[in-house]
Structures are given as structure tokens and as C-alpha cells.
Amino acid sequence: MSWSGRQGVMVPAARAMSDPGATGRFGTYGGRYVPESLIPACHEIETAFREAWSDPEFHGRLDTLLTVYAGRPTPLTPAWRLSRELGITLFLKREDLAHTGSHKINNVIGQALLAHRMGKERLLAETGAGQHGVATATAAALLGLKATVFMGERDIERQELNVLRMNVLGAEVVPVTTGSRTLKDACNEAMRHWVSSVDDSYYCIGSVMGPHPYPWMVREFQRVIGEEARAQCAAELPVGVPDYVVACVGGGSNAAGTFAGFVDTTARLVGVEAEGGAAATFGRAGVLHGFRSLVLQDEDGQVTEAHSVAAGLDYPGIGPEHAQLRDGGRARYETVNDEEVVQALLRLARTEGILAALESSHAVAWVIRAAESGEIAPGSTVMLTLSGRGDKDIASIKELL
Amino acid sequence: MTESLEEFLIARRGMGRPLLVPYVTAGVTPGWTDVVRAYADAGADAVELGFPFSDPMLDGVTIQEAAGRAIAAGTTVKGILQEVATLDVDVPLIAMTYSNLVVQQSTAQFCAALTASGLRGLIVPDSPLEEVGELADAAAAEGLDLVLLAAPSSSRARLREITERSRGFVYALTRMGTTGERGEIPEQAARLGRELKGLTDRPVLFGFGVSNPAQAADLAGHADGVVVASALMRKLLDGARPRELGEYVASMRRALD
Q1: pLDDT tens digits, residue range B41-79?
Q2: pLDDT in tens, B195-232
């Protein structure tokens, strides 16, 4: 049952962004590029997810937890003063107000319920900014599961607070010392660990990436953002649908969930990437972490290190469905630089009293730039998903000021 | 040497010898091609060459370190192939790499380039049955044997399809997990070996965790031979010279025979 159903407002399901079928293909992207050892696990998860997703009891449990535990529905907040300054009407979908401080909890509660249903004892996860790790540790505690979170050594330094939160919640945080010591390497390590512990462990992937069924499944668990926002926009806006729907993109889970609610409308969909981690903009087709998509890589096919002021966005790939949306022109992807991000974070904080995560501030930065340059016409309506709150970034922000 | 990898290995097996395939990461040291020669001289039946990738999903710490070292030294696919073309060894060479390197231009171009440089086989561990179609066709068109992996977790139906579609040999994983040296050979390896041998006449070789001559001999008793990677690469990373690596392969050869 969708959120809109709970509220008694019927919103038709999106036609695009639907089930990618047994092969997990989004056009030429997606798939299941994992070692033979992991294939049975992928099949098992796909079967379990298909069963759960058509089971009203599973949806009932999920909806209940999202409501009474995660704090859904999250509000749609008009950004009153910033809207006036920019000459547009800007609404913020407040995922920062969800439990644990970001949209990550939606997906993790869904996957943790699934793992529990499958009889798994432990959740494995990788994390960049730490938000997915915190959400995983939280859901594991809630359901009585163990949690092991892989995190790059560099991210551990940048996100000390979130590491502490995971420890307090009872999760084991494993530092990853290989490669660039960031999210990409944490993904490799989590995948390797999964191969050797697949019997009792469930790999809880944090974004719309990885082998099938993860990109589809994670999008479905995040769809709640878009469906809520769509119903909220229908109630708030005279025409029912905003002119622009904007979200930041690393792997792209908050954007995928948001877009899923609007893909069959006239809204223009915009994903905003970090300039140094812009796989949709600068990537080439390739295979990484179990799926085919757009990947930042050198001429020879070695995956290059991404950079962003936001630890959650320095990932060198993008979810396969985003690659398809880009190729088909249904969504466009833009980049902003670190300086714009920091300025946007400050401006939102000082006009609206909302401290957004550095990740989310990428989306804010693009809206500011596009509105001030006239690319977004004056008087337009914009719905922006504020994917998380900025408390975790306060040490980074202090250094940047 | 005009026969295919598979024909070559079957002929060697026909001589009553367990098969031994040592591994080296291409580009890991400036003299890595000397390692290949040393292996061949020491009685290897084929040599597996790792084309280093930045994100080797199925490799443990040793092979990761070797790949990282090779990439840092500027190793490229083109460079490896140029060096391979100069190698004059009397055993087949098999490339091992990940999907992202294979799909850079096209799988057809990649396979053609391997064949042109004299390689006879290809292993792509992150390309399971579901994704292998185009690559299998491209490899077949070039006469390159595409070796598929079989895992302890594979169902019997999948094992049957893997043995049917694999070429050269069937690469049986001794355990669930990454590459790397291990203390014991699990019972599941023997079971997988028996099952695969019951399904195919194609050579079946064990890989992953073959750490010493005694283990190699033990495993070879359950199949047709072994692939040895991390144990050799650890020695190389610790400074062993090609001659010393060759001596170690020779000790494995003796244990197998």
C-alpha cells in the first residue's frame, strides 16, 4: 500500500521506472555482474523480494515502521524566504526529518525486514558519509540483527560522529584501508565479505546500485519519497505537479525514489552530481560493483577516484536506471562544485533555518544557480528532495568556512 | 602449438599428469614475463596472467596488492599484450580479468586482441552465466577458450550448464570466499570436484586457497589439477625472484606427480 493510499488520496502508479524483469536490465544497463558464488544469493534475494513486495502483510509491517518509527510522512516545507529571493516557489521534501536524519532509513527498514523474513542473522553494509551505516545499525538494533559496516579509512576520519553513532548502536565498523579508502573501496570490501558469509549474512546495499535486484529493490523502497511528495504537491500546487523535481545524486537512491513519483508527469527531473564525482555527466559505460552503468574511469578502464566535499557523493558510478533516464532524456544531470555547495548550505541555513547535509546542498546549489541565471524561469515551481540533515557535516563545514 | 587450450590440457591430462596452472599479475614487477618463463620451465601446464583491475571484487589482499602495484606502475592492457606477444613459451597463456576491462571497446575487440597476442584462454570472474552470452560468442569467434567458474553454492542445474558452456577447463572454486592462502581444504571442494567430474570430460581445475604443494596434491586427487595464485604472488610481493618462484612451482609439480 502506498503512502497516498494511506491518506486516502489515490495517485496512479508511475508507468516508467517499473519492474526490470528477471535480467534486471534498465535498457543496456543493470544486470548481475557478480562471481558465480554470489548468484544463488542474488536469486534468493530477488525471489524473497518479489514475494514480500506482493504480500500485504509485508507492506503492512513496512508501512507501520515507516510511520511509527521512521517518522513518515515527512513534510513538504515551503522555502518561504529563499523562494522570494530566487523568484520561484521552492518546496523542500524533508527527508532530513526522518529518523536517523536522512532518506537512508526508508530503504534500510525495507531491506532489514526482508533479511529478517529470510532468516538472516546479520546485515552487511558499506557506507560513505555514514548515513547508510547509521541507518543499517539502527534497523539491525530494531530487529535484533547483527550489523557489520565497511567504511573507508578516509571517510572514518571525515565522519567521526557517525562512526560513534554506529558503535553506540552496537554495529561493528570495519575500516577499509585499500585503494582510495573511500566509499568505492568499502563497496569492494563489503562484496568480498559477502562472498564468504552469504549463508548467514544479508548484504544491505545503500543505493540504487549493485547486482539485480538491488537497483530496483532500493528504488522501490525509496519510492515512498516520490509518492508522498507527489500527493503533497497535488494538495499544495494549483496545477498539482511542480515544474521541476530536483535531487542530489551519488549512487542516486533519493533521486530514484523521488523521480519514481513524478516520472509519468510533466515535471522536469534534474539530478545534481558533485563536479568531481559526476558519473552521469563525465562517465562512460562500464561494469563496477555488480552492475553495468556509467562509470568514471581512465582510458584503460581503471575506475578513477571521485571527489566531493560530501563523502556520500564521491562515488565513481551512478545507478543503472539513472543512466537509462539520462540516455532517454527523461531526466537530466547537472554538476555543481564544492564552493557552490558550501554557499548553498549556508544560504539555506540562513534563509530557512534548515541545516542540510552537504549531499543535499548539491541540489540546493543547482536550484540557486539555475534560478539566478534565469534557466529556471521566474515564477516556476520546484520540488527539491532534501535527502539528509547537516549535523554530521558540521566539522567539515567548520573547516570550509 | 596449434591446438586450443582445452585440447592442450586434455593431451597433458592424457599423459597421466595432474594439471598445474600458476598465476602471475601482469606488470606487477618489471621482469614479470621472466616469471612466466620460469613457471613454464618448472613444469606448468598453462599460465594464468592477471590483467590488473582497480576494483577486483573476487580477490583477496594479496592479488589486490599485486593489481594495485601493477596499475601504479602504469600497466595497461595494451602494454601487457605487447609484452605477451614477445613471450615464447611452450604452454598456453590464459588471461584473467574483470568485466570492465573486457567491455572497454567491445568484447569482440578485446577477444581479438588477446588472440592476436597469442593468448589461448580467458577468465572473467564477474561474468556469470547470466551475463556471459556476448562474451562467449566473441571468444568462440576468435578461438579463445572462455573458462567459466563453478562455485560450491552453484545448483546442480547451473553446474550442468557451466560444464556445458565452459571452454578450456572448468574453474572450480574450493570455497566460498575470495582468493587467498588458507590452512585447510574444505570438504565442499571434494564434493564439488566429484560432482563436476560426473558431469563433464572437460578438465576440472581447482582454484582459490591452494597454498602449498601438499594441498595441491590433495585437491588434484578430486579433479584434474589446480590453479595456484596467491601463494606465488605473496612470495613475489615479498621479493622472490623468478628463479625462486620457478623452484616453488617445480616443488608443486613434484608433489602433484
Answers
A1: 999 999 999 999 999 988 888 999 999 999 999 999 999
A2: 999 999 999 999 988 888 998 998 999 999 999 999 99
Q: What is the rounded CA–CA span in Å between residue A144 and residue B73?
A: 47
pLDDT tens for B87-111 read 999 999 999 999 999 999 999 999 9
Q: What's the Cα-to-Cα distance from A44 to each of A39, A48, A114, A208, rounded to whole Å?
A: 9, 6, 11, 18
What lies within 8 Å, CB to CB, of A376 at 6+ separation is: A88, A243, A244, A367, A370, A382
CB-nearest partner of A302 from B54, B57, B173: B54
Count Cβ atoms below 10 Å from residue A400 Cβ, excluding itself. Answer: 15
- Residue at A1: amino acid letter: M
What does pTM read for this prediction?
Answer: 0.94
Name, in order, each residue with C-beta under 8 angstroms of A147's C-beta and a sequence gap of 6 or more.
A122, A123, A124, A125, A136, A137, A140, A141, A166, A169, A170, A171, A172
ipTM of the complex: 0.95
Compare all CA atoms of chain A with the CA of B148 and give the residue at the minimum distance: A36
Q: Which residue of B has its CA nearest to A25?
A: B131
CA distance A401 to B219: 61
Q: Is the pLDDT of residue A396 over 90?
A: no
Q: Is the distance from CB of A39 to CB of A288 less than 8 angstroms?
A: no
DSSP A126: E
Which 8-state DSSP code applies to residue A388? B
Verify whether residue B48 is a known catalytic residue. yes
The contacts of residue B156 (CB under 8 Å, 6+ apart) are: B195
Paired with B204 in beta bridges are B170
Q: Which residue is listed with cell 503492512?
A: A60
Contact assessment for residue B22 and residue B205, using Cβ atoms and an 8 Å cutoff? no
> Count of residues for chain A?
401
Q: Which of B251, B253, B93, B60 is nearest to B173 (CA)?
A: B60
For residue B178, the chain A residues in CB contact (below 8 A) are 192, 195-196
SS3 A102: strand
